[in-house]
Amino acid sequence: MSIEELELLAKVASKYYVEEKTQNEIAQEMGLSRVKIYRLLKEAKNKNVVVININWPIKESQNLERQFEEIFKLKKAFIIQSRQSIEMPVKTMMGRIVAKYLETILVDGMTMAICMGSSTYEVIQAINPTFRVKVRVAQAVGSLPFKTTEKDSSELARVLSEKLGGEVIYLSSPMIANSPESAQILKNQVVIQNTLDAARNADVVLSGIGKLDAVNSTLVRNQILTVEEVEELIANDAVGDILGQIIKSNGEKMECEYNDRVIGITHEEIKKIPISIALANGPEKAAAILGALRSGATNVLCTDEITAMAVLELNKEH
């Protein structure tokens, strides 16, 4: 479609949506039929000349939020109603809540560390395009294998830095090395050290919480671990991961070769970051979320009511 054609779509759309004129009025002004105006408006939507955004109200459960903040010593808990619709899935609602929170805490000169995942992606998508702040965005973990369907940390860091108007600090490394020895060699590289230094000294870190699952785990899907290896970890009390680091049900870092192969900030370093935000939802993730909360590596949590109640119930049992 030519520039002239796009300009026509924009002109018609502006008269209809901004000036709030009727299709008949626009048709008379422009010497076109009302049917033609209708088709142009439809085409304007199809070509993304017009993008309609509906701000659906998101209700939070304040009672559950207070419980989580008290029990797990959180800076902040965001627990939304578990209503999911075609208009806005739960994960999208969570992304919007955290995006608004970020807009209240980020200021010029801060450093923000992020990792891969669909939860991080939803937050970045929801950040208001008019919100601009000069922050450094650092990759907290290396990148996944090239052929992956996951939302990779390097791409997310780039998009977030562009949205905010800041700068990006890439971690030029795979997420997992072939061995602990290879991981140490990579970590000793100056360019990797510089990015990890920026991430570990960040003011804010944003991540999801991964469930350790032998069937449907990111680690298995990307051939980082085998089904047998994941099953062995689970048998030894592993429940999930934060920023690539596998944790146990009591929140402690799992002592295993896998964790020593991760190229990223460590479990202890995550705990030292002032604001550590994690998003996760689904009752099947309750054990992983509880482990993350017990670890001290998460001090701001966003989830939904059903998941929150599953976490509280599990906390009582164990």
UniProtKB/TrEMBL annotation:
GO molecular function, one term: carbohydrate binding
Gene3D superfamilies reported in the protein's UniProt record: 3.40.50.1360, Winged helix-like DNA-binding domain superfamily/Winged helix DNA-binding domain (1.10.10.10)
Domain Sugar-binding: 58-313
Keyword ATP-binding listed: no
Pfam families: Sugar-bind (PF04198)
PANTHER family: TRANSCRIPTIONAL REGULATOR LSRR, TRANSCRIPTIONAL REGULATOR-RELATED
Protein name: DNA-binding transcriptional regulator LsrR (DeoR family)
Natural source organism: Pelolinea submarina
Keywords carried by this UniProt record: DNA-binding, Transcription, Transcription regulation
Superkingdom, taxonomy of origin: Bacteria
Similarity comment text for this entry: Belongs to the SorC transcriptional regulatory family.
